[in-house]
Amino acid sequence: MGYDIERFVGYVNEGLLCSICRDVLEDPLQAPCEHAFCTACIHGWLVHHSNCPEDRQMIDVSLLRPLYRYMKNDLNRLQLHCKNREYGCEMVCSLESIDRHERECEYSQIPCSNAGCTVQIERRNLDSHLAVCEYRSRECPNGCGYTILSAEDTQHNCVAELRTELELLRSEMICRVEEAKHEMESRLDSQRRHMVQKESILQNEIEELKSQMSRMMSDVRSLMAAERQHRQELEQAELEKREL
C-alpha cells in the first residue's frame, strides 16, 4: 500500500500515484508500459493476474524495473505530514526523510519496555511512565538480592524468597548429583563390559597358545623317537658291517 495522499502538502502529480491503490507510490516499481505501482500492490496483483491493471498489457515480475530517476527525485521531494500528526506532531518533511523522522518521532506510540506491561505510550512520555509503571522492577532494599515488581512490594518476604531460592538450588544440586551418578555408573558398566570382553579374548588366546604348545611338544617327541630309531639303525648297520 502507498502513502495516504491526504498526508501530502500541495499538488501531487498523477504519475506519482500507484495505479492500483491510488495513493502516493511506496517503494515503487515500473512496468514496461510505464505505469508505476507500489511494490506490495503489484506483487499482490500479479498473484492472480498476468497483465497491467491500467492497460491490460501482459507483464511479468521479471519485467518490473525501478522508477525512472527523475520520477524518483520528484517523489522524494514531495512534502508530507508525520503519521503522528493526530497525536500532536506538526513536522512536515520530504518523503525521502519521513521514515527517519518517524523512527525517532517523540509522538510515536511505542510499547512500555517493562516485561508484562501492555501499555502503548508516546516516546516523549516513556520516562515518566516508567517511573510509575506497576511492572517496573528493582532490587529488594533489604539486601536479599531478589528483583521485585512494584506491585509486589507489600507481598515480598525476604526469608520466604531466600528459602524458595535455597530449595531450588538444593533440587538443582540433587539433580546434578543424580546425573553425575548415572553417568559414572554408565561409564563403569561400559568399562566392565570392555574388561570382560578383553578377558574372554585373552583366555581364548591362552587356550590357543596351550594348544599350539601341546602340538609342538608332540612334534618334538616324535622327532626324538625318530632320531632314536635312526641311531639304532645306524648302530645295527655298523655291527653288520663289522661282522662282514
TrEMBL record:
Gene3D superfamilies: Zinc/RING finger domain, C3HC4 (zinc finger) (3.30.40.10)
GO molecular function, a single term: zinc ion binding
KW Coiled coil (keyword) present: yes
Coiled coil (UniProt feature): 192-243
TRAF-type zinc finger segments: 101-144
Alphabetic keyword roster: Coiled coil, Ligase, Metal-binding, Zinc, Zinc-finger
GO biological process, one term: regulation of canonical NF-kappaB signal transduction
Tree of life domain: Eukaryota
Residues annotated as domain TRAF-type: 101-144
Every RING-type domain range: 18-56
InterPro entries tied to this protein: Znf_RING, Znf_RING/FYVE/PHD, Znf_RING_CS, Znf_TRAF
Keyword Ligase belongs to the record: yes
SUPFAM superfamilies (alphabetical): RING/U-box (SSF57850), TRAF domain-like (SSF49599)
Entries under PANTHER family matching the protein: RECEPTOR-ASSOCIATED FACTOR, PUTATIVE-RELATED, TNF RECEPTOR ASSOCIATED FACTOR
Protein name: RNF41 ligase
Organism expressing this protein natively: Ibidorhyncha struthersii
Gene: Rnf41_0
